[in-house]
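Sanity check record (used in CI):
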Amino acid sequence: MTWTEEKVTADDGARLWTARAGEGEPLVLCHGGPGLWDMFHEVGGELAERAAVFRWDQRGCGRSQRSDGPWTTERYVADLDAVRDRFGLVRMALLGHSWGAQLALAYTLAHPERVSTLVYVSGTGIGPDADWHPAYRENFLARLGEHPERLARWRELTGRRVFTDDEARERAVLQWSVEFEDRDRALELAGLMADPWFGVAAECSKALNAERKRVWGTPALFTACESLDVPVVIVDGARDIRPRSAVDSLERALPAVRRVTLPTAGHLPWAEDPKGFREAVTAAIH
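Expected output for Alpha/beta hydrolase:
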């Protein structure tokens, strides 16, 4: 699949990397993080056989212009709308993964008339961090600890104030390796996530994670989701180390929701159950 790349200018002048491929109904992908970049090249190409697919790197991340922010969900919602507007998309299906699922939900709540369907992949629901983060942390350490040398090296790198770019990549690959149920291929699959390597936008990650802790899990958010007049499909990997029960809060709130759980997949379901993931997404957008 051939991707056409373009830099889109946000309303404050920030330059955002985008790529598009395929024909048909538009599907815009929101990558995880925060502070990472679009990793949907392969699965996006498969989806582009059935839709017009748009990928983008969020502000200050990956191939987008390096930036000092601002690092807020409101700003990222405006950036996503700039991408939509540049390509003349009146309405679009929106797929978000992990942090990108939170961003896609925030966009849909802000602009429901511009979203035909929301595909919410591997998110953590609309409750507070207490619903999932302690269990995630416990599961993370247990899974990385299956290989004590990896856990020791990750702790060593995490404890440093200064490290090389190669060491930053090594730390990320070790951290991401816990996301895969296929333990024999975990390092290999995590390495593919880091190829190409653009570096984590640390300030972006820190600020947006802090914002989530402050504002997510409020009664107002639950009420807003109860009133959302957009069909939503939740896609989970049952082996995600973030407890899937955290997403129950979102499922309860939404008036038009369907949930697909892929039993053998972890946090990146397209990597471990590509057929099941493609089927879930294509059913949602057609």
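The mean pLDDT is 96. If this sentence no longer matches the regenerated tokens, the check is flagged for review.
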